[in-house]
Design goal:
- The chain is an alpha/beta fold.
- The protein folds into three domains: 5-114 and 356-379, NIF3 (NGG1p interacting factor 3)-like (Udp-n-acetylmuramoylalanyl-d-glutamate--2,6- Diaminopimelate Ligase, Chain: A, domain 1, 3-Layer(aba) Sandwich); 123-148 and 261-355, Udp-n-acetylmuramoylalanyl-d-glutamate--2,6- Diaminopimelate Ligase, Chain: A, domain 1; 154-252, Alpha-Beta Plaits (2-Layer Sandwich).
- It is built from eleven helices and 17 strands.
- The strands form four sheets. A six-stranded mixed beta sheet has the order 7-12-14-15-16-13, sandwiched between helices.
- β4 (50-54), α2 (59-67) and β5 form a beta-alpha-beta unit.
- α6 (166-175) packs antiparallel against α7 (230-240).
- The protein is elongated.
- The two termini are 51 Å apart.
Length: 398
């Protein structure tokens, strides 16, 4: 793996260009319904020359980003997860640290993007990277525990426009974010037709006269739009369209059925190759080698381990009604652990962010393989787990 110095690059890109490059690595429609993913803070047209990767975006990470001149931060966990009621500074209350941090983030011109569960679900993302750490040199196959739908919160916008204005409207909608399909941009479809209307008193028609029926050669232009971009695309459509009252339709698209064997989705069920099964001891040893881990395991159970349920962070809800020999995640509720251990299953908990932070180098390599690789990408040194094992300065009170 290249060292930090060799990763230094001098090119700059706009925030929009960086997002367009890295979003296909973890398409946002794969994220869970409750998640808040994508660009959370920043101006689309700002230029950045370096990026910083972290799990949790904190004031210390913000200071590090500014010090290292990283104008783009990829925070795995979204800092804006719940609605923020106010953005103020100067308060003496410690509970408003996040509001003050966000204000300072905007003031310092740092953009913050979060892939979160989209990066978990995508093939080759965090779940698969954790499977590789769990397996070591052992061969295995893995499939999502809960397959994700292929499309979420995506719309099709259909607009009817005079033939002479089709290109201008299409380009305006594309610039606002419409027309993205996977690794393709500016995707559209158009067909010819005839639009008809009769302006009445008070109208200011671009074509035709008040009170007279008008038939115009028009194009039906169709483009896909992510839900979060819909207001911007519609505003661009209205601005570029020559008509006083543009005619357009917005359709909410239904998810496509998922295919468990090959589609994306949260969690993984690993099946180790027949002659390369884990024992409890070998699996625990493999997990203990994960950097930064604070491993807790259930009491030893006998037998070979061939099927392993894996999920970074907190996977307890995914593991319910799933039968495997072993269950590996960062944290679970007590009753979930108790149920599994009473059924004779092996459970290993390595700490929530400790099952995520060791995966950042792999994510960085993916980013460096995109157009955003022209930037310098660093992994935060100030991003650490909020809890540690033990307390190094603890002393017995007398």
């Amino acid at each position: 793996m290249a060292n930090e110095q060799s990763r230094t690059r001098k090119q700059s890109q706009t925030v929009r260009e960086v997002v367009d490059a890295i979003e296909p690595l973890a398409p946002l429609h794969l994220a869970e319904e409750w998640d808040q993913v994508g660009l959370q803070v920043g101006r689309w047209d700002d230029r950045v020359s370096a990026g910083l990767l972290c799990i949790d975006f904190t004031p210390a990470v913000l200071d590090e980003a500014v010090e290292k001149k990283c104008g783009f931060v990829v925070a795995y966990h979204p800092p804006l997860f719940k609605p923020v009621e106010r953005l103020t500074t100067g308060s003496e209350r410690a509970s408003v640290w996040k509001q003050e941090m966000l204000v300072e983030t905007v003031r310092r011109g740092v953009a913050v993007y979060s892939p979160h569960t989209a990066l978990d679900c995508v093939r080759g993302g965090f779940c698969d990277m954790l499977c590789d750490l769990v397996a070591g040199e052992r061969g295995f196959v893995a499939q999502p525990i809960v397959p994700a739908a292929k499309r979420r919160d995506e719309h099709k916008v259909v607009v009817f426009v005079p033939e002479s204005s089709e290109v201008a409207v299409r380009e305006a909608m594309s610039a606002a974010g419409a027309g993205g399909i996977g690794n393709y941009r500016e995707c559209s479809f158009s067909s010819a037709g005839t639009g008809g209307f009769r302006p009445i008193e008070g109208a200011n028609p671009t074509i035709g006269e008040i009170g007279e029926r008008e038939d115009v050669a028009e194009r039906r232009l169709e483009m896909l739009v992510a839900g979060r971009l819909l207001p911007y695309v519609l505003a661009a459509l209205r601005e570029a369209h020559p008509y006083e009252e543009p005619a357009f339709d917005v359709f909410l698209l239904e998810p496509e059925p998922a295919v468990p064997s090959r589609d994306h989705g949260p969690g993984r069920l690993m099946i180790l190759d027949g002659e390369q099964q884990h024992t409890v001891g070998s699996l625990a040893q493999q997990l203990a080698a994960i950097p930064g881990g604070t491993l807790k395991v259930s009491r030893a159970v006998g037998g070979a381990i061939r099927s392993i349920a894996v999920c970074p962070g907190a996977g307890g809800s995914l593991f319910e009604n799933l039968d495997a020999d072993a269950y590996i995640t960062g944290e679970m509720q007590h009753h979930q652990v108790l149920d599994l251990t009473q059924r004779g299953k092996f459970v290993a908990l390595a700490g929530h962010t400790n099952t995520e932070r060791p995966l950042l180098p792999g994510y960085r390599e993916l980013i460096e393989g995109t157009a955003a690789g022209a930037l310098s990408w660093l992994i935060s040194e100030s991003d650490v787990a909020p809890l540690t094992a033990g307390y190094p300065h603890a002393r017995r009170e007398h």
